[in-house]
Amino acid sequence: MITTLNKILENNPCKSGWNKLLQSLNKTSADDEDLSLIYILKSNGIDDALWALRCFDYLDYCLFLADVAESVLHIYEESNDNKAPRNVILAIRDYKSGRITKDELKIAAADAADAAAAAYAAAAAAYAAADAAVAAADAADAADAAAADAADAAVAAAADAADAAVAVGARKKKWNEIEELFIKHFDTRLHHSVNYFSEDELKCPHCDEYHFNSGTLARLNALRVDRGKPIIVTSGYRCKEYNILKGFTQTHASGQSVDVLCDRGEAYEILKLAFKHGFTGIGVKQKGEGRIIHLDDLTEGLRPTIWSY
Questions:
Q1: Could you give the C-alpha distances from 308 to 16, 66, 291, in angstroms and in order?
Q2: Quick one: 180 exposed, middle or buried, by C-beta within 10 A (0-12, 13-18, 19+)?
Q3: Which pLDDT belongs to residue 122?
């Protein structure tokens, strides 16, 4: 992502960080030349790079926060059954895709904070999730200060994640992991604007029509980017008539369901990524021929859920 020195200056950077950045650029004053977050990371370090998120909208970096929180979630879940921290991470991703409102995200954040307050030793891991969503609540305000408040919450989420790692003697390692996540999300050289899935792959084989949900497609593409390998689709949108003819359920008629070909280790890999990217319905067929995993992001009915064929 790209900002400028003038935008950074508008947010009142600390003197030492500002001078360090100017010196690295061989400049003495602010200007409007493009300046990437990755450059700030390399010149000033992860703390200043996180601070610079205040130059952007929450939606530009919320998925990074979700990944940071998720990276320490296991510490919380090893000793706590409360699903609120995990649910708020899913809520952040749903908010990004437009599937839930700010108010719904705020409720999820409050539930995660309550879980953290009761967690004692593992509280930092839950607070990392809560702070990641609290940033959205701050960003929802119209005031200019909202962006700074949201970024402060983002910094808090990263710090909470590092604090959670203290319990397992891995604080320095965790900060390195946060830096790697930062690069993964904000280094534009690693991202592709291409859609990996054609209409022919996802249209109904019976009526030949394409009614695949754009939000689900974005989620599927994000999973594909994260995996770094091709994903073979065996079924996407299926019209109601075709489902009746074949004796299928109507899940695929929603345009929010897809079956992907995979088995053994590939299936395990896709399962992990499916949870990460917010798929709420997962069906596993890993016996005989045509082994697949069904993925959908429906919200009605029995969701989230997982089943086997």
A1: 57, 28, 11
A2: exposed
A3: 47
b/e per residue, 62-100, with b = 16+ CB within 10 A?
bbbbbbbbbbbbebbbeebebebbbbbbbbbbbbbbebb
Spatial separation of the C-alpha atoms in residues 220 and 231, rounded to whole Å: 9
What 3 state SS string does 275-288 have? Answer: HHCCCCEEEEECCC
Task: Count other Cβ atoms within 10 Å, centred on residue 286.
Answer: 14
Instruction: Compute the distance between CA of residue 15 and CA of residue 229 in angstroms, rounded to an integer.
Output: 44
Tens-place pLDDT, residues 237-265: 999 999 999 999 999 999 999 999 999 99
Structure tokens at 135: 């940033």
Are 180 and 140 spatial neighbours (Cβ–Cβ below 8 Å)? no
The owner of tokens 């000033």 is 44
Is residue 66 within 8 Å of residue 93, measured between CB atoms?
yes
261 bridge partner residues? 232, 292
Partners of 294 in the β-ladder: 259, 283
Q: Report how far residue 176's alpha carbon sits from residue 182's, in angstroms, rounded to the nearest whole number.
A: 10
Q: Which two tokens stand for residue 36?
A: 């990437």
How many other β-carbons are positioned within 10 Å of the β-carbon of residue 216? 24
Q: Confirm if 91 and 136 have CB atoms less than 8 A apart.
A: no
Q: Which helix (H) or strand (E) holds 43?
A: helix 37-44
Give the residues across from 292 on adjacent strands. 261, 285
How far apart (Å, rounded) are the C-alpha atoms in residues 5 and 206? 55
Span 215-244, pLDDT tens digits? 788 889 888 888 888 999 999 999 999 999
Q: Alpha-carbon distance 226 to 188, whole Å? A: 14
Coil, strand or helix: which one is 117?
Answer: helix
Supply the pTM of this predicted model. 0.58
